[in-house]
């Protein structure tokens, strides 16, 4: 998925037992999808920051969905049951979806966990990539790429930096389900 592309259809089960699709937050000014997982140290380092993003922007009309698509047969910590446990431990603040067949993450073109995809009110991709510039320590962050993009999207403005490469673990693809390798 490239900047300017429209959000694709999906229908995924959340840790709350409900199903979510691209229309779930149709009333929101912007929609943030973060591809993440349970086991990756990069992803774990960002859970607190994602909760803070939710608390900061939920009232500003931002919808947030987190999605785990890792192959649980290779990484049992990423099973749906363990996702439910993590969501409970985090206080079920935001929606955590299971992309068991890896369709949404493949459509998004996600490669890392965590990796953010921000869509504006028309559900056009306006930002993709890193959340900030310091995965190791949230107190050492000097660039808040995603927050800057959210602010612009909520204000109906163009995002200054639309793509910042995500840093994190690779998505754990189901054998034979790997996306084709891009060649330029």
Brief write-up:
By secondary structure, the chain is α/β, with parallel strands linked by helices.
Q: What do these coordinates show?
A:
The chain has helices at 41-57, 80-89, 103-108, 145-154; strands at residues 11-14, 19-21, 30-35, 62-68, 95-98, 112-113, 115-119, 125-129, 163-164, 169-170. It has one domain (11-167): Glutaredoxin. The model has no long low-confidence stretch (mean pLDDT 94). It starts with 10 loop residues before the first strand and ends in a 14-residue tail after the last strand. With 184 residues, it is α/β, with parallel strands linked by helices. It has 4 helices and 10 strands. An 8-stranded mixed sheet has the order 2-1-5-4-3-7-8-9, with helices on one face. A two-stranded antiparallel sheet has the order 6-10. Helix content is 23%, strand content 22%.
What keyword list fits this structure?
8-stranded mixed β-sheet; 184 residues; 23% helix; 22% strand; Glutaredoxin; two-stranded antiparallel ribbon; 4 helices; alpha/beta
Distance between the termini: 15 Å
Major sheet strand order:
2-1-5-4-3-7-8-9
- Give a count of the beta strands, DSSP E runs of length 2 or more: 10
How many domains, as an integer? 1
For the record, what is the CATH homologous superfamily label? Glutaredoxin
The low-confidence runs, each spanning 5 or more residues with pLDDT under 50, are: none
* Average pLDDT figure: 94
Quick one: CATH class?
Alpha Beta
Query: Helix proportion of residues, in percent?
Result: 10-25%
Strand residue content: 15-25%
- What is the gyration radius calculated from CA atoms? 15 Å
Task: Give the topology string: H per helix, E per strand.
Answer: EEEHEHEHEEEHEE
Biggest sheet features: 8 strands, mixed
Class by alpha and beta content = alpha/beta
CATH topology: Glutaredoxin
Quaternary structure state of the chains depicted: single chain
Shape: globular
SS element count, helices: 4
Per CATH, the architecture is: 3-Layer(aba) Sandwich
């Amino acid at each position: 998925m490239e900047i300017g592309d429209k959000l694709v259809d999906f229908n995924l089960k959340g840790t709350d037992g409900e199903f979510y699709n691209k229309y779930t937050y149709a009333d929101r000014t912007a929609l943030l999808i973060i591809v993440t997982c349970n086991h990756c140290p990069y992803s774990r380092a960002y859970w607190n920051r994602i909760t803070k993003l939710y608390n900061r922007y939920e009232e500003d009309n931002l919808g947030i969905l987190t999605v785990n698509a890792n192959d649980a047969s290779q990484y049992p910590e990423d099973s749906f049951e363990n996702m439910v446990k993590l969501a409970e431990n985090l206080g079920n603040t935001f929606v955590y979806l299971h992309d068991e067949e890896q369709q949404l993450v493949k459509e998004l073109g996600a490669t890392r966990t965590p990796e953010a995809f921000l869509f504006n009110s028309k559900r056009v991709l306006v930002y993709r990539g890193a959340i900030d510039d310091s995965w190791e320590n949230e107190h050492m962050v000097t660039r808040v790429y995603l927050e800057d993009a959210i602010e612009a999207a909520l204000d109906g403005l163009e995002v200054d930096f639309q793509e910042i490469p995500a840093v994190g673990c690779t998505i754990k693809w189901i054998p034979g389900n790997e996306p084709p390798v891009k060649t330029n």
